[in-house]
Amino acid sequence: MFKQKIKDEDTKARTGLFSTQRGDVFTPAFFPVATQGSVKSLNNCQLSEIGVQGYLANAYHLYLRPGIEVIKKIGGLHKFMAVDKPILTDSGGYQIFSLARLRRVEDKGVEFQSHLDGDSIYLTPEKSIDIQLALGSDILVPLDECISNPADYKKASEAVTRTLLWAKKSKEYFKKNANPNNLFFGIIQGSTYNDLRERCLESILKLGVDGLCVGGLSVGENRQVRYNTLSYFTDLAGWDYLRYFMGYGKPDEIIEAVSLGIDLFDCVIPTRYARTGTAFTGKGELVVRNSPYISDSAPIDSECDCYSCREFSRAYIRHLINAKEMTGIQLLAYHNVYWYNNFLKKIREAIEAGNFPKFKKEFLSKYKTRLR
Fold first, then answer.
1. How far is CA 257 from the centre of its chain?
2. How far apart are CA 124 and CA 338, in angstroms?
3. Is 90 an active-site residue?
4. Which of 9, 64, 208, 275 has its CA 20 to 30 Å from the CA of residue 231?
């Protein structure tokens, strides 16, 4: 499923080709998040113009609303969303972390209290896979237990044991019910403990998987600990599997993760930051809603050729954001998703040209978390 193309000689960065039933994904790649079946503020025509390679949707949220039967009746999630690109679905495992006050975890599964109406929902590993199959997901992931960091060793070990139990049940259900075109990724947990990561990886590989997900990072640990854990994981993982870092991250974090051997990313940051009036540029994060841009005639990013940057000034977009006009958020969301997609393309080109370390160094020397 995954074919490595070129590996950078000085880092672990690599390019690759990942094949799905709905097309190839050139890696390193970024999937925008369509939690509810939609990338916030953007329509499919815009996403097609941008050239996104795939989407991340959330099985838990779609199960709650509009419900699996509705989506099945329409013809599956691709038809429901009217997209023809690969869709990767999250299992509901992250909600164990994010909805900690609304759930109860046990070996059999997880009981959630719906954040919509308070109803009780019981999600088992088998049910999570069944939901994803009903959605018609191209890439399925098993239910896992994601805990926050820092975590004590005992708690992290228990989470790995439960994650592996659920992975085994998930894979058994997948083998009995999936079609040959469905792909199954395994999730590697273990907090920041290398021996737990190794234990989890070895057991997941024995199940037989099409790709590997990095879970349980960027949930409270500092960056250096995160990078150390990533580096250890990619050394162990070998070169035959796509490595997917779930729910990550900002541009400076992504380029560091690529240099450690990560191939695929998803994150809500591009559209979430757009809703706060923040744009991504090659020089850093531009808070366009701020007063310095009230009469600024420059585009968001002079080095970007997206529609928003070609046609509109910072002053106009700032005006729309502060006037609470939806068009302002749409223009920023378009730019941010375009910028992320193009950023990953530039990374691929740098790796293939043999100058990724130089590209990374120059990018990080210019990139600032907040411009002004």
1. 13
2. 37
3. yes
4. 208
pLDDT, tens digit, 9 for 90 and up, residues 15-37: 999 999 999 999 999 999 999 99
What is residue 96's predicted lDDT score, i.e. its pLDDT? 60
User: In 237-312, where do the E strands start and end?
Assistant: 242-245, 264-267, 278-281, 284-287
| Superfamily designation of domain 2-267 | Queuine tRNA-ribosyltransferase-like (3.20.20.105)
HSE, side-chain direction, 13 A CA sphere, residue 201: 22
Q: In what order do the strands lie in the sheet with 103-106?
A: 103-106, 109-113, 120-123
| Strand-pair category, 242-245 with 211-214 | parallel
Average per-residue pLDDT in the chain? Answer: 95
Tens of pLDDT, residue by residue over 328-351, are 999 999 999 999 999 999 999 999
What length does the chain have? 372
Q: Which position among 8, 138, 210, 266 bears the catalytic label?
A: 266
3-class SS string, 243-268: EEECCECCHHHHHHHHHCCCCEEEEC
Distance CA 271, CA 36 (A): 14
Bridge partners of 103, per DSSP, are 112
Catalytic residue flag (residue 10) = no
Phi, psi of 233 (to 5 degrees): -65, -45
Token readout for 71 is 């989506």
Rounded Cα gap, residues 356 and 8, in angstroms: 7
Distance CA 191, CA 356 (A): 29
Are 139 and 185 within 8 A, CB to CB?
A: yes
Segment holding 3, helix H or strand E: strand 2-7
Query: CATH 3.20.20.105 spans which residues of the chain?
Result: 2-267
Q: Which of 8, 90, 210, 263 is catalytic?
A: 90
Q: Residues 276-299: what's their mean pLDDT? A: 97
The model's pLDDT over 99-158, given as tens digits with 9 standing for 90+, comes to 656 678 899 998 877 777 778 889 999 999 999 999 999 999 999 999 999 999 999 999
Would you say 342 and 357 are in contact if contact means Cβ atoms under 8 Å apart?
A: no
Phi and psi torsions of 88, nearest 5°: -105, 130
